[in-house]
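=== Structure Prediction Worksheet ===
Name of assembly: unnamed complex
Input type: mixed (protein and possibly other molecules)
Chain count: two
Listed entries:
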Amino acid sequence: MVAYNWPKYGEAAVVGKEHDRIDGLEKATGAAKYTYDINLKGMLFAKILGCPHAHCKIRSIKLDAAKKADRVHAVMALKKEDDEVLWQGDEIAVVAAETEAAAAAALEKIEVEYEVLEVFVDDGDLEAAEKAKRTKGAGDEIAVAMEAEDDVDEDEFNVAELERQFKTAAAVVEGDYGISVITHCCLEPHGTTCHWDGDKLIAYLSTQNVSGTPPQFGTGLEIPASDVTVICNFIGGGFGSKFAADTWGVACAKLAKETGRPVKLMLDRDQELKVAGCRPSGFMKVRVGADKEGYVTCWDSSHWGTAGAKPGGVQLKNVPYVLLPKNYRRKQTSIITNCGPDRAWRAPNHPQAAALSLTALDDVAAKLGLDSYDVFMKNLVNATPKKMGKSMADTYEQQMKRAAELMDWKAKWHAHGKGKAKGDVVTGLGMSLHTWGGGAVKCGCTVKVHPDGAVEAYLASQDLGTGTRTVIATVIAETFGLPISGVKVNIGNSSFTEANPSGGSITVGSVSEASRRASQEAVEIIFDLAAKKLGVDADKLEAKAGRIQVRGGDRKSLSWQEACRLLGMNALEATGKYDPSKIKDSPLSSSQVGGVQMAEVAVDRRTGVVKMKTFVAVQDMGLVINPKTAKSQMYGALIMGIAYALFEERIMDEQTGAFLNCELSDYKLPRLGDVGEIVVDIWQPESEYQRGVVGLGEPPVISPGAAISNAVCNALGVRVPVLPLTPKRVLDAIQKGAKA
Amino acid sequence: MKDYTQDERLDSSFSRRSFLRGSGAAAAATAIATGTGVVEAADEAKTKIASGAGTSRIKLTVNGKSHEVEVETRSTLLDVLRYQLDLTGAKPVSIDESSGACTVIMDGKPISANTKLAMQCVGKRVQTVESLGGSKPDAVPVAFVKHDAMQCGFCTPGFVVAVRAFLDKNPQASEQDIRQGLNGNICRCGTYANVIQAAIDVVKGGK
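=== Predicted Assembly ===
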């Protein structure tokens, strides 16, 4: 049995060093081929007709005129008579033609009769939704601190006790908070290029889920999953929205079958925003009671939001976020709207929960005239959940201290609304904190070592932008004592060894587990062969700096190539498999991370424009494989956070349910000049290294909403209740504050 | 019923039908006529119009090479690059110029390849991101790799070209200039901080 492990702390040669991504130049020079870039001989282009109405019944669909249109090869309905459509853009029919333009022109010739039904899209007004019968209870819970003689089952007692807590609180903050729906807005839209080789389907799919999508095609096409190969060498953004083959993927495969030609179907930009994923909104009414030092003693909240036509929204258990007071009541309501369906958006539930809850906590500091830093610190004792069996309070405390140093918090701090204005511009500080699991999932990796010393890895994982190839090469190079350039990595093909989907920050943990296991298996075999050759014990050998050598300075050694030649004619193949349901407490990976973020903003009171000055993030992630790409993920998450804190939101027309800003000219995203100074800090004391790899993709995107909102509140002395903090919302809040 | 695609929008103001009506063809040919090679294109277009085929054979100079391609009047430069020349570095991301993902350099200036008709590019020198690659890559993509100014990478080629064009014009650009001058490109993964560092690095290296 091979004892899987990482090199001792401080002894790794490749892991933990900064490496350029191995496919970087391909991406930077346009050589990388994304799904959208796959052009096959004789390829047709497919386009989808989206429903113009947000709520309607289909009376009839006539395809004949479209079928006869210029250069059209196939037309297929995706809905049938009497089907109810619940959001604008839902797929009605699809056309395959010789060019994109011909396909688009043919869509105009599809005749659909719609019976338009009543539309409801307002997700912010709970009362209006109740009146329209568009709400669905999603749970409630009450808990109070118990003493030995208390009867735990009595609701009446709990309610009375909660009210008693509010009566005795030194300060009670009551407020409304909100965070709007945003879309995933992948720059490469969802889509696929399909072609058939006899009965076998090859689908180039823009997917976060190379291993998991063949069965989905199989089901949709009624063919065995073994007849489907999914390929995704590069994916242009997913953020949680690209796990499925999707209606359009299966339709594309059917069109390819029907026409006998390869077919490319990529969503148009407006379709991408309308139907291919969004993050649920969250709105909350809350009372928070605290003692005079800002320690929260009681919490009473009701939150709601929409995930589209199905119930959903920010889960009950995530509110209040992370810092759970001893006495609380919480309630969640789903609002059913005629809006596009939600999909997992980077750290599902957490960014909204943080933006709703940790803003309310900051308002406790504002009300009591306290330093927000001290109030957050005071409440760390209530930190949930646990990390490695211990409270996260200690992690947060250390990360807060580090972040405060990097921000120079103490020197910059002023009480809420009490900073010195420079003309119309006021500055402010705000903070937030967060947690995420990020543990590895089931994943395999096959490592092949050729007799000439060449090394390859095969696994059906994908690179969402993480730098997956580089991570795998780093891990294997470490095990074999080779430079990263000595390892060729093959991912993005479902015929390779089954691997992880990329979602929930599981990629780096999973592929590190599998590739370390596979390479450790392989190197043991090479050690055995080398040991015989060198006449030493195999367990005395190590792989270092391109050699297989005796540990501790003995001169007996073979070069990597000499050792591999001992394999004989054939390559050595070793497969490493990680399955958390079978392997407990792996030394290679763990889960649960913490992070603290602090934002400094400047707000122009005249224009309402918020500008980022400085944004600091401190984050743990266990053992770091490649700090260079890890830091990029942090930068990226903070910028995506700036996007939803200050710029982006889905805007729906209340009369028609039309998605009004579904093109990039109207869907506001930050630009290069909007991000200010960003400082990221990987928090990796030895204890973090020792617990192995934990994923990083989601956690740093959680806090920006709360941290930036708190900074704006600190600058202005009034809360701008709903994200994004657009100039209008800022000016409205200032005006309301002036009246109060 | 359906939002117009870029192709159709262009078609509506510069349509094949009016092109085929003859006088329109001459007007359109004049409208796009600057630089060498245009007369040739106009002549060829007339021939095609006479034959009613609706397509024209034109010559485009891309990355220093002349390519003869058959285009529809409504074909954009981006269509031709991606589907005829298999130069897929420039990406289709938005229907207009709001994303910068299909930025190419035409006669020294950055343009969006999706808002130029292929026929407007006759006689122009078009440079795509692919020209910055190869065995001796340009300093900009090299700096992008060094500063990890990419994640998913879909916006990266457009960004690389935009930075190249910006620094060609502003070789001594300060950090402030860079922050103010490169706002035409959208990155959803959030690589702006790294792009700024990459651009600063290129300025320092004097390339």
